[in-house]
Amino acid sequence: VSTQSTGLHGWREVTSQCSSLSQIVIHLYTLDGWITWKKSALRASCRVCRRKCDPEKLLLCDSCDRGQHLYCMKPKLRSIPPGEWHCAVCRPPPPRQKRSKKQRNGWSDEEGGEDGEEEVQSARRSSSRGGTKKMADSEKLKLGQKILVEMQENENGWPFLYPVDGNEVPEYYTIIPNPMDLSTIERKFRTNRYRKFDTYLEDVELIFLNCIHFNTSKAPAHKAGVKLQKLFHQRLDEYELR
Q: Fewest CB within a 10 Å sphere: which of 44, 78, 142, 219?
């Protein structure tokens, strides 16, 4: 076998030349040991300090296999907790607080409450009729705000409610130069930053783009992002906003 054949390619080349079952079994054990080593805490580095030291104090995420030292966490941990542990990116959704009916509709008491809901329904009816009159950006943005509230309350919205904590996931802002989250979009609505519906649309799509770019396809956050994006597109089609 050529000395230049390394890794998996070399293993395949050697295995293809086996002449007995016992030789194949030996190479299977070798492959299994290599896979175990690739995922071992002895090889992993801390996502916070980036060092490959103190493997006995390195906690691996059960979803993405990324590691973090117990003393690099905030707050620090004294020992490895029992059961499964997930990093900040893969952590299961937090418990949700129930909103009042007016909050679910996307308006507070000061913003008109039922009047605001009636305006949304009116815009929805006018869009569903498919008339020749083009919907104004102000009407589109009201519907966009309604969709935003629905995404915040959806069970798949948990990874995108707030900005990613740079202390818990320090590499995130290196990989993602233009972060976006649902709370930032909500703040832009409160401060009247949105003048064009397309600007709002770009911000929401940026959330999903960042999610797919940063997370692996098996990560819970990635799966939640795919489902939430599907809901978002369904609402856009329902209100004929694209």
A: 78
**Rg, Å, the chain Cα set:** 25
Whether 70 and 77 have beta carbons less than 8 Å apart is answered as: yes
Report residue 18 as tokens.
Answer: 């086996």
pTM of the model: 0.55
Whether the CB-CB separation of 49 and 69 falls below 8 Å is answered with yes
pLDDT tens digits, one per residue of 19-63: 788 777 777 777 666 555 455 555 577 777 767 778 778 788 877
Give the list of residues 6+ apart from residue 87 with CB closer than 8 angstroms, or none.
47, 61, 63, 64, 66, 68, 168, 169
Q: pLDDT tens-digit profile of 204-215?
A: 999 999 999 999
Contact between residue 123 and residue 221 where contact means Cβ atoms under 8 Å apart: no
Would you say 57 and 70 are in contact if contact means Cβ atoms under 8 Å apart? yes
50 CB burial (10 A radius; 0-12, 13-18, 19+): exposed
Q: H helices then E strands: how many in the chain?
A: 9, 2
For the CA atoms of 35, 39, 41, 44, the dihedral, rounded to the nearest 10 degrees, stands at 120
Q: What CA–CA distance (Å, rounded) separates 142 from 109?
A: 16
For residue 138, which amino acid is it?
A: S
